[in-house]
Amino acid sequence: MELSPANSDHQSLARDHERLQSQYAEIASLAGGLAHEIRNPLSTIALNLDLLREDLTEGETARERRMLQKVTALRKQCDHLERLLNDFLQFARVGKMERKPTDLNVLVHEFIEFYQPQAKEQGIEISPHLAANLPAVEIDYRLFLLVLTNLSRNAQQAMPSGGVLELQTYLKGDQVVLEIIDTGEGMPAETQSKMFDAFFSTKKDGSGLGLPTVRKIVEAHHGTIACQSESGRGTRFRIELPGGSQTINR
Questions:
Q1: Global pTM value
Q2: In CATH, what is the architecture of 100-247?
Q3: Sign of the Cα pseudo-torsion (141, 147, 148, 150, in order)
């Protein structure tokens, strides 16, 4: 029995999906093994640097003070490698998802509750504007908390003297929209053209994986992400996700 073109296309898409999932799983497994092999010696190095720093803290000679500076610099590099390793693992493991119908507003409220103390300490006011009666979205809750965390961290770095972080949700046709808007320094066009490239960063200690991870998560959920920004006038990230048929009343 011959397959109709529609059935053939469906089976082809299913095979492509299975192949991509298999590739993601293999990459995640390799990333986990690599992280284990790096983290163990890195932890040992960091521990010994801490012990050396303790021994040198009360040093009185110029030589001991120079050694303390060098040990402290090396310890900071260990912290940077640890952050890079964690960011890489997040990036590599995006393919592993558990999507469930979710009220996006509940997720945003949970994130605000978690982030509020840090925002207050940095002089950042959080301003939520969340539409009622949004359709549920099929998302991995944990991964979308990571999306909000990465975008808010990006906004925080753009507002070193404080500012406003606005979180909006609304319905646009059959798409549920989430916007993250800051009043920070903004980005020039050149930076915007590269910001989703893996390992691109304008920050000295940045891994260059935060925004690529965000895009990878959004696209894995069949969504889109766009950015509007201008130097000195803040940044707006807009995420659009397919809405489900189920409406959540609030």
A1: 0.67
A2: 2-Layer Sandwich (3.30)
A3: positive
